[in-house]
Amino acid sequence: MSKAGESLGTVARVIALLRLLAESNNDLTLSVLSEKMGLAPSTIHRLLALLTKEGLVGRNPASKTYYCAAEFVRISSLVLQTSSIADVAEPILQSLAQRFNESSMLCLYLEQQKRYTIAKAIHGTQLLRYDIQENTPLPLAWGASARSILAFLPQAEIDEILSASGPSQVSGEPIDERTYADLAATRERGYAFTPGQRVAGSVGLGAPFFGANGRVVGSICLTIPRNRFDPAQEKILGHALIEHAARLSHHLGFTGNR
User: Fold this and answer.
1) What is the pLDDT of residue 128?
2) Taking CA atoms, which of 4, 99, 143, 183 is between 20 and 30 Å from 35?
3) CA-based nearest residue to 248, from 222, 210, 214
4) Phi, psi of 71 (to 5 degrees)
């Protein structure tokens, strides 16, 4: 192997090793790391020695496990300070808007206010589209962008939010057993689907994304004028939202399965 090829292989292994440590609660021994990466213990030991020397990895002498050390945390913190979820989500929203030529949105849960906001919207080329107001707190009871978040909150939080919510300002529909049935259906299929709940004449679809702690952070959504919506496309749109939301969850450190 050439020097360049050997260097590339080392870089790829170091990245894989750091990823494995970060995603495994930093409690893996040398033998377990060797097994999971499919590399000889001597190779893993050499990589760990390089990372330890740079302060990226540390070792607990009592448990003989390795963890991401202070320098790794410092670098990660610097990246987080200069990035936002909207920045990370932008190419994902672009992908949806280009694929379906409709408006895609990033919605974030405002936990303290028990509301949500549209943090970013990217439009297709269609002339008829909705004016989306960004960075405004909105209620969580109505619309796919809201219910795709609400459905994945703890039950006590759902009850609290719905008990303080009034009927739909568009349809006049009240909060009742149908609301809870729709939230259950949203959890089952993985995306929310609401025709004309929040904006008259529109159809909304949304799928949740999650943070590293497994808690819902927000949703990725599409909003479509009803006269342009094909009901036969619902599942295609819904599954695309699930896939794109899963990508964002992965970028935010979520390693579970929803």
Assistant:
1) 62
2) 4
3) 210
4) -65, -35
